[in-house]
């Protein structure tokens, strides 16, 4: 009786095959995925590879840190910058940076579809403008608030208390500016917190 035995699979090779299967969807080409896999797995023990297989966040961090991935992102970034600048010249650097936060497959889709790219640019521009408006509003509120806080505290303490109060929602800060009594109550709480922090 002849028993044929199947070849024993190498544990490391099985782990690498599984890792490649998880890395491939994150990359634009299978060749890039293999390059990233070789770079990631080169200095790892089987236990470390198993950790990557079980933790998607850890795997994504490893892929993003790989030189092959960074090089592809750099090349895509250059191409994306030129296409974005043709459509939105004023904010092209900011918008390109925002779009580069996307995965490489999505970036390649944007580069291959001008309509999709235009929609992404409009969305990114809207988000950026909203963010800058909120930042500007917060700065203006901070200046007004600081002037009021300086009436009660030395400048070095006033700046810290102002910073603490600016952590509140902008609408609430606006309300505090209009209500001296509520502002005083919030300042008392902030000052007590500040003293507790300074004492520890």
Give an account of the 3D structure.
There is one protein chain. The chain is an all-alpha fold. It folds into three domains: 14-65; 75-128, c-terminal domain of poly(a) binding protein, CATH 1.10.1900; 132-199, c-terminal domain of poly(a) binding protein (Orthogonal Bundle), CATH 1.10.1900.10. It has helices spanning 11-23, 30-41, 46-54, 56-65, 67-87, 92-99, 104-112, 114-150, 155-165, 170-178, 180-199. Helix 1 runs parallel beside helix 3 (46-54), helix 3 packs across helix 4 (56-65) and helix 7 (104-112) crosses helix 8 (114-150). The longest helix is centred in the middle third of the chain and has 37 residues, at 114-150. It is flat.
Indicate the topology.
Elements: H1 11-23, H2 30-41, H3 46-54, H4 56-65, H5 67-87, H6 92-99, H7 104-112, H8 114-150, H9 155-165, H10 170-178, H11 180-199
Helix pairs in contact: 1-2, 1-3, 3-4, 5-6, 5-7, 6-8, 7-8, 8-9, 8-10, 9-11, 10-11
């Amino acid at each position: 009786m002849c028993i044929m035995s199947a070849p024993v699979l190498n544990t490391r090779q099985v782990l690498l095959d599984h890792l490649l299967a998880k890395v491939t969807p994150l990359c634009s080409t299978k060749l890039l995925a293999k390059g990233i896999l070789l770079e990631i797995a080169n200095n790892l023990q089987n236990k470390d590879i198993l950790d990557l297989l079980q933790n998607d966040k850890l795997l994504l961090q490893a892929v993003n840190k790989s030189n092959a991935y960074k090089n592809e992102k750099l090349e895509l970034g250059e191409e994306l910058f030129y296409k974005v600048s043709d459509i939105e010249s004023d904010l092209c650097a900011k918008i390109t940076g925002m779009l580069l936060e996307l995965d490489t497959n999505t970036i390649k889709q944007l580069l291959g579809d001008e309509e999709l790219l235009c929609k992404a640019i409009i969305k990114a521009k809207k988000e950026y403008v909203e963010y800058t408006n909120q930042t500007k509003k917060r700065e203006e509120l901070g200046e007004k608030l600081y002037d009021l806080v300086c009436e009660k505290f030395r400048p070095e303490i006033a700046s810290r208390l102002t910073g603490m109060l600016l952590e509140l929602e902008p609408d609430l800060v606006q309300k505090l500016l209009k209500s001296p009594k509520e502002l005083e109550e919030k300042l008392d709480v902030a000052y007590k917190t500040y003293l507790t922090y300074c004492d520890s």
